[in-house]
Amino acid sequence: MRKVNILYLLLSIGICSSFGMAVLYLSKSLANVISINNEEIIPSYDYHFVLIGQEIDNPYFQTIFEGAQAAANEKNIYIEYMGPRQTNIEEHIKMIEMATAAKVDGILTQGLTNREFKPAIDYAVNRGVPVITYDTDLDESKRLAYIGTNNYEAGYEMGMELIKDTDGQAHVGIITGFLYSNNLVLRVQGFLDAIEEAPNVKVVAIESSNISSSQAADKAHQMLRKYPEITVFFGTSALDGLGISQAINKINPASPILVYAFDDLEETLELIKNDKIQATVQQNQYEMGYKGVVLLYDAINGVQIPSTFYTPTKILRKNDLEE
Ligand code: BGC
């Protein structure tokens, strides 16, 4: 019992000190930017915002950061971009907590899941750190506003496109980034509601890719083995379409299976040009970052901001790319 207690104590000290170091780093990071050779100079930034992305190197989030950085430059804001290397809810939450403890001037984050994200967002807001959700909303939290796609509508629209292309006859496999993340749940729900209109469009399986293209490829591969009747795939997040077409290509490069995807990553557009992906939902991720920073800035400066700000989406097909 005693041994267990000591171990527990040591572990707690370890966790607390690494958290403390991280907070110290965060709160110092602004100071580092404004001091040269330890000489006191007038602070060069008016605010310090933190943007947390679900995966730091994912090109989708890099574009959001580019937008956020552009707005931050215009408004004299220091923006710190961080995120887990690979999607990880625990790490993501820790980053919100660290930014809160460092009392930054504002946080931009997704609200991926209710159970984990609501307490972290509410805690930040209660401590006076305003939070805006982008990409994935959590409207039951105390976030000031949401900026991003109307995910239900986007999923619905994709369902309608599929009905049109298949004359209402299809066996569909869905690969979704996460089974539980709020935005993807809405996309799938919108899609399922749309295909209710077509009784001969049937979903045979839904699997998660953990927003990784290689896992999307594995899942698509397994699905095709298990359900050879699949005629259509719907990939709900940025890397799913890429993984799905990799799997199809491996099994049969001349396969007539149709693929519907999300986002406009370069590889996705290439696959559309080569008829490997039929259509994709283009989100406006740059605007999410840009306008997210502007909304946060406005709110801090007493401007009334809308609680929901939908960024437009567009269905992209081969002919759109040729124009
Ligand atoms: C979604 C993000 C997700 C990303 C994964 C995008 O379509 O909007 O929530 O993290 O795909 O690559």
Descriptive terms for the model:
323 residues; alpha/beta; Rossmann fold; 2 domains; six-stranded mixed beta sheet; 50% helix; binds beta-D-glucopyranose
Summarize the structure.
With 323 residues, the chain is α/β, with parallel strands linked by helices. It is built from eleven helices and twelve strands.
What does this molecule look like?
- This protein folds into two domains: 132 residues, Response regulator (Rossmann fold, 3-Layer(aba) Sandwich); 132 residues, Response regulator (Rossmann fold), CATH 3.40.50.2300.
- About 4% of the residues have low confidence.
- The chain has eleven helices and twelve strands.
- The chain starts with a helix and ends with a helix.
- The strands form two sheets. It has a six-stranded parallel β-sheet with strand order 2-1-3-4-5-11, sandwiched between helices. Strands 7-6-8-9-10-12 form a six-stranded mixed β-sheet, sandwiched between helices.
- Strand 1, helix 2 and strand 2 form a beta-alpha-beta unit.
- The chain has 323 residues and is an alpha/beta fold.
- Beta-D-glucopyranose binds next to loops.
